[in-house]
């Protein structure tokens, strides 16, 4: 099995539709499953995970997405998307843990 580093992401060449992540970021590749590989603790991001493509799965695999209780902050944020799946996440200390606006079939 080969692993290739692309930007800040680790892509499993054997299953290219799965991307392992460990930091807050924009999830923008349609049809991909993003798998969180560690806890994110005390993030000061305004949007830890912003989903900007359709047909995305975010599998936190039981890991935590933790913020710092900042006004206007979001653990997971998405607008006007379809076919999203968010699972196995523990989300704490955000103004809104999960914010989905205009998102369908999710």
Helix content: under 10%
**First and last CA, distance:** 32 Å
Shape: globular
Chain-averaged pLDDT: 90
Biggest sheet architecture = 6 strands, mixed
What proportion strand?
over 45%
Order of helices and strands: EEEEEEEEEEEE
Q: Pairing-aware structural class of the strands and helices?
A: mainly beta
Q: Would you count the extended β strands for me?
A: 12
Radius of gyration: 13 Å
Report low-confidence residues grouped into runs of 5 or more.
1-7
- Oligomeric state of the chains present here: single chain
Question: Biggest sheet: strands side by side, in what order?
Answer: 1-2-3-5-7-10
**Helical run tally:** 0
Protein architecture, described:
The protein is mainly beta and 106 residues long. 0% of the residues lie in helices and 47% in strands. A six-stranded mixed sheet has the order 1-2-3-5-7-10, with no helix packed on it. The protein has a four-stranded parallel sheet with strand order 4-6-9-12, with no helix packed on it. Strands 8-11 form a two-stranded parallel ribbon. β2 (9-12) and β3 form a beta hairpin. It starts with a strand and ends in a 5-residue tail after the last strand.
List the helices and strands and how they pair.
Blueprint (H helix, E strand, L loop, with lengths): L2 E4 L2 E4 L5 E4 L3 E3 L5 E4 L10 E5 L4 E4 L4 E3 L7 E6 L4 E4 L2 E3 L3 E6 L5
Parallel strand pairs: 3-5, 4-6, 5-7, 6-9, 7-10, 8-11, 9-12
Antiparallel strand pairs: 1-2, 2-3
